[in-house]
C-alpha cells in the first residue's frame, strides 16, 4: 500500500468514541500520518458520507438499523475494513444488554424506571433508528479484513497497526500494545 496518499474513512457506531480518542492520542505522529493518508468521511473531518476509500477504521458494534446501514455502505466504499476495539470485535459493553429483551428494556427505561412521574412514552419517531434485538460485532454483518483489539486500543497500537499496513506489512502488535482498561 505504498505510493499515493491513501484515503481513510473512520466512523463510530455503538460505542463510546474511545477508539477515535486513541487515534487522536498519537499526537504529533498525526502530522507524519497526514503525509501518508487523506481522511475522507470521519468525525475528524465532519464529512458524513464516504466516497471510495482505501481503508476504513470502524469502532463500535451494531445496536440499531442505522448502524447496520452505515456499516454496509462503508464496506461497499472501502478496500480494507478494520474493526477497531472491543465493541467492533465482540459487541463490547453495549452487548451486555443481549441477555435482555429489548422491549422489556424500553418499558423499564421509559415507562416504569425509578424517578419517572407516570405518563411516560416509549419514543416512536420515524427519525429514530430501530433498535436491534441483539448488539452484534461487525463481522456478523460484513467481511472484516483486520481486527485491532483493545478497549480502546492504545495510541501506540493504532500507530503500529497503521504504519505496518501503510508499509505493506501484515500488522503485528507485539507484547504490551494490546490492553483492556
What keyword list fits this structure?
about 180 residues, Rossmann fold, 5-stranded parallel β-sheet, two-stranded antiparallel ribbon, 6 helices, 7 strands
Query: What's the arrangement of strands in the largest beta sheet?
Result: 2-1-3-5-7
The CATH architecture comes to 3-Layer(aba) Sandwich
So what's the CATH class? Alpha Beta
The average pLDDT score comes to 90
Largest sheet descriptor = 5 strands, parallel
What are the low-pLDDT stretches, counting only 5+ consecutive residues below 50?
Answer: none
User: Can you identify the CATH superfamily?
Assistant: NADH:ubiquinone oxidoreductase-like, 20kDa subunit
How far apart are the termini? 32 Å
In which range does the helix fraction lie?
25-40%
**N-to-C SSE string, H for helix and E for strand:** EHHEEEHEHHEEH
Amino acid at each position: 500500500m505504498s505510493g499515493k496518499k491513501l484515503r481513510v474513512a473512520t466512523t463510530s457506531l455503538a460505542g463510546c468514541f474511545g477508539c477515535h480518542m486513541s487515534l487522536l492520542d498519537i499526537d504529533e505522529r498525526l502530522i507524519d500520518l497526514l503525509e501518508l493518508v487523506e481522511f475522507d468521511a470521519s468525525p475528524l473531518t465532519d464529512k458524513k458520507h464516504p466516497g471510495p476509500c482505501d481503508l476504513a477504521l470502524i469502532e463500535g458494534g451494531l445496536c440499531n438499523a442505522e448502524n447496520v446501514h452505515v456499516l454496509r455502505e462503508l464496506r461497499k466504499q472501502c478496500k480494507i475494513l478494520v474493526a477497531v476495539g472491543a465493541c467492533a470485535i465482540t459487541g463490547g459493553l453495549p452487548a451486555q444488554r443481549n441477555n435482555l429483551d429489548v422491549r422489556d428494556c424500553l418499558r423499564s427505561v421509559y415507562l416504569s424506571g425509578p424517578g419517572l412521574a407516570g405518563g411516560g412514552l416509549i419514543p416512536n419517531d420515524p427519525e429514530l433508528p430501530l433498535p436491534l434485538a441483539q448488539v452484534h460485532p461487525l463481522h456478523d454483518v460484513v467481511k472484516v479484513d483486520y481486527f485491532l483489539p483493545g478497549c480502546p486500543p492504545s495510541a501506540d497500537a493504532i500507530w503500529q497497526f497503521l504504519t505496518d499496513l501503510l508499509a505493506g506489512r501484515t500488522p503485528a502488535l507485539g507484547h504490551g500494545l494490546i490492553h483492556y482498561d
